[in-house]
TrEMBL record:
Gene3D superfamilies xrefs: Formyl transferase, N-terminal domain
GO BP annotation list: 'de novo' IMP biosynthetic process; one-carbon metabolic process
Annotated GO MF terms: formyltetrahydrofolate deformylase activity
InterPro entries on file: Formyl_transf_N, Formyl_transf_N_sf, PurU
Native source species: Alicyclobacillus tolerans
Source species, domain of life: Bacteria
Protein name as it appears in the record: Formyltetrahydrofolate deformylase
């Protein structure tokens, strides 16, 4: 559910002056980016961060978010009810 779609989302975010970089991991459904959310994470960024910094930070938060979601799924810690999840942590 990116705020900046299309080509070069991190460049778009940089030029917009974002203060937070985040990622969402969710189950896949027939509707694009509409599945039940498993995990979300955000990190604060600064006006001092370059486009490359935003890419690095974004990739790290994406990796961490996906890792946690897959871990919980494999450990069978997620209950899905309609379009929501309950994560047993």
């Amino acid at each position: 559910m990116p705020a900046f779609v299309g080509c070069n989302p991190y460049e778009q975010a940089y030029h917009r002056g974002v203060k937070l970089i985040g990622a969402t991991a969710h189950y896949v459904t027939e509707e694009l980016d509409d599945g039940p959310i498993i995990e979300q994470q955000v990190l604060r960024v600064s006006h001092r961060d370059s486009v490359n910094d935003l890419k690095r930070i974004g990739q790290n938060v994406e990796r961490s978010t996906l890792f946690q979601a897959v871990k919980w799924h494999v450990e069978d810690r997620i209950l899905v009810h309609r379009n929501k999840t309950i994560v047993l942590v």
